[in-house]
């Protein structure tokens, strides 16, 4: 009989700056205790960067848009999808040393084993990134 996978964890947060902290906390708390020392910091940073990008580039507070997160384990990774209602496609930038922003996806690229941007079936964009973990901790 095949192993039944875990049900992905799903959250919705308002398009508001306080959602970055709330999302990071929710993701950290959903990790199994044994994986928190191995994945907690990197997954927290990944969450912060992706939610911040979604807020800056994909959602509009005036419209009370939502940022959605889905976290699930599969194939030796924890996968995080952060979705927003925007239609833009995030791309890796190469900011100069004087730039005050533009480094979020550079961090994502260095932390994640793999990441991609996908359009959502109905409306919006998702950025999906995976961090490896060892089975059993």
TrEMBL record:
MF terms (GO), sorted A to Z: ATP binding; protein serine/threonine kinase activity
Superkingdom of origin: Bacteria
SUPFAM superfamilies, per the entry: ATPase domain of HSP90 chaperone/DNA topoisomerase II/histidine kinase (SSF55874)
Alphabetically ordered keywords of this record: ATP-binding, Kinase, Nucleotide-binding, Serine/threonine-protein kinase, Transferase
Gene3D superfamilies: Histidine kinase-like ATPase, C-terminal domain
UniProt keyword Lipoprotein, yes or no: no
InterPro entries referenced in this protein's UniProt entry, alphabetically: Anti-sigma-factor_SerPK, HATPase_C_sf, HATPase_dom
Domain (Histidine kinase/HSP90-like ATPase): residue spans on this chain: 13-127
Pfam families: HATPase_c_2 (PF13581)
Record has Kinase as a keyword: yes
Entry protein name: ATP-binding protein
């Amino acid at each position: 009989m095949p192993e039944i996978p875990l049900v992905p964890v799903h959250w919705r947060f308002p398009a508001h700056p306080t959602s970055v902290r709330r999302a990071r906390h929710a993701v950290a708390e959903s990790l199994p205790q044994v994986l928190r020392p191995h994945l907690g910091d990197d997954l927290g940073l990944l969450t912060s960067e992706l939610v911040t990008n979604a807020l800056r580039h994909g959602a509009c507070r005036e419209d009370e848009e939502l940022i959605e997160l889905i976290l699930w384990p599969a194939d030796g990774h924890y996968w995080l999808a952060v979705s927003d209602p925007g239609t833009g496609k995030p791309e890796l930038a190469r900011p100069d040393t004087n730039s005050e922003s533009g480094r979020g996806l550079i961090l994502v690229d260095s932390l994640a084993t793999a990441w991609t941007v996908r359009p959502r079936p109905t409306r919006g964009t998702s950025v999906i990134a995976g961090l490896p973990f060892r089975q059993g901790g």
